C-alpha cells in the first residue's frame, strides 16, 4: 500500500469516527456537559484566590479532560467495534494496522483539541476572565503536540479492551488515574511524597501542564516554550511506535486465542 492509499485509509477512519459521534450526539452532549461542569467546579475552588489560581486550575481541568478524551476515543475504539458488531470485519480486513490506528489517533487528537478549546471558551466566559495577555497560539500548539505523546499511551491502554471483553475498557482508567496523581494536574509536583516524585519527571503530562500554564498565565512565547515542544515531540515519536508494537503483539495474541468476537 502506497503513502496515498495509507492517507485515504486513515481519513476514512477519521470520517467514520466522526460519523459515530454524530450518530450518538446525545451522549456526546452529556459527556461535554460533564466536562464543562467539572471544569467550572474546579475553577470555583480557586475563585477566592484570584484570576491566576482559577486559570491554574482550569488548565489542569483542560489537560485532564483532553487526556480523558484521547484515552476514551483510542482505547474504547475497540469497544465501539464490538458494540457496532464490526470488530471481526475491521481486524480481518486487508488494511494495514498502522493505517487503522493512525486514523483513530488523528481523530482523537482533533476531537480532543476541539472539545478542550470549547471548554476553555465557556470557562473564560463563565468567570468573566480576560486572557488578553495569554499566548493562545502557543497554548494550541502545546495541546496538539502533547496529544502525540498521549496517543502512544492510549495505544498501549487499548490493549486492555482488546484482550478483555467485559472490563477491559474500564481498566484503561488506571492509566489516567496514575497520570492524574503524578503529573501535577491540580497541584505542583513538589507536594508529592519524595518516593513518588521521580515518576512525575517521566510523565509527558507534567511538561504539558507547565507549558500550557506558562502560555496562558505568563504569555510565554514559542521561543521560550520550544524546548518543551521538542521534548513532547520526541516523547511522541518514541511512544507512538512503541504503542503500535505493543498493540500489534496484543492483536496477534487476540486472534490466536479467538478473542475477536462481537460479545463476551
Would you write up a description of this structure?
The chain has 264 residues and is mostly helical. The protein has one domain (3-256). The protein has helices at residues 3-23, 25-45, 51-75, 77-84, 87-92, 97-127, 136-157, 159-163, 168-171, 173-182, 197-200, 204-217, 222-256. It is globular, with a radius of gyration of 19 Å.
Specify the structural class: mainly alpha
SSE topology string: HHHHHHHHHHHHH
Largest sheet: none
Could you tell me the strand content as a percent range?
Answer: under 5%
Provide the gyration radius in Å. 19 Å
Fraction in helix: over 70%
Tell me the domain tally.
Answer: 1
Please tell me what the overall shape is: globular
Number of strands: 0
Low-confidence stretches: none
Instruction: Provide mean pLDDT, rounded.
Output: 80
The helix count comes to 13
Concise synopsis of the structure shown:
The chain has 13 helices and no strands. It is mainly α. The chain is globular and about 55 Å long.
Q: How are the secondary structure elements laid out?
A:
Layout (H helix, E strand, L loop, with lengths): L2 H21 L1 H21 L5 H25 L1 H8 L2 H6 L4 H31 L8 H22 L1 H5 L4 H4 L1 H10 L14 H4 L3 H14 L4 H35 L8
Helix pairs in contact: 1-2, 1-6, 2-3, 2-6, 3-6, 3-7, 3-12, 6-7, 7-12, 7-13, 12-13
What are the main properties of this structure?
264 residues, mainly alpha
Amino acid at each position: 500500500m502506497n503513502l496515498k492509499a495509507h492517507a485515504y485509509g486513515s481519513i476514512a477512519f477519521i470520517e467514520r469516527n466522526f460519523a459515530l459521534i454524530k450518530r450518538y450526539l446525545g451522549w456526546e452532549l452529556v459527556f461535554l456537559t460533564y466536562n464543562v461542569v467539572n471544569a467550572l467546579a474546579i475553577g470555583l475552588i480557586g475563585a477566592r484566590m484570584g484570576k491566576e489560581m482559577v486559570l491554574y486550575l482550569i488548565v489542569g481541568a483542560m489537560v485532564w479532560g483532553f487526556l480523558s478524551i484521547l484515552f476514551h476515543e483510542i482505547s474504547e475504539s475497540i469497544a465501539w467495534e464490538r458494540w457496532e458488531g464490526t470488530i471481526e470485519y475491521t481486524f480481518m480486513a486487508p488494511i494495514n494496522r498502522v493505517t487503522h490506528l493512525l486514523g483513530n489517533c488523528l481523530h482523537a487528537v482533533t476531537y480532543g483539541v476541539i472539545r478542550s478549546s470549547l471548554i476553555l471558551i465557556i470557562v473564560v466566559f463563565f468567570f468573566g476572565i480576560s486572557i488578553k495577555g495569554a499566548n493562545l497560539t502557543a497554548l494550541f500548539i502545546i495541546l496538539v503536540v502533547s496529544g502525540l505523546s498521549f496517543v502512544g499511551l492510549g495505544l498501549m491502554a487499548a490493549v486492555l479492551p482488546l484482550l478483555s471483553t467485559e472490563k477491559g475498557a474500564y481498566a484503561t482508567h488506571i492509566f489516567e488515574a496514575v497520570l492524574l496523581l503524578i503529573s501535577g494536574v491540580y497541584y505542583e509536583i513538589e507536594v508529592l511524597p519524595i518516593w513518588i516524585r521521580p515518576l512525575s519527571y517521566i510523565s509527558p503530562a507534567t511538561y504539558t501542564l507547565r507549558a500550557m500554564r506558562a502560555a496562558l498565565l505568563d504569555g510565554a512565547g514559542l521561543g521560550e516554550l520550544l524546548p518543551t515542544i521538542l521534548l513532547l515531540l520526541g516523547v511522541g515519536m518514541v511512544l507512538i511506535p512503541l504503542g503500535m508494537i505493543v498493540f500489534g503483539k496484543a492483536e496477534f495474541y487476540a486472534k490466536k486465542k479467538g478473542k475477536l468476537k462481537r460479545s463476551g
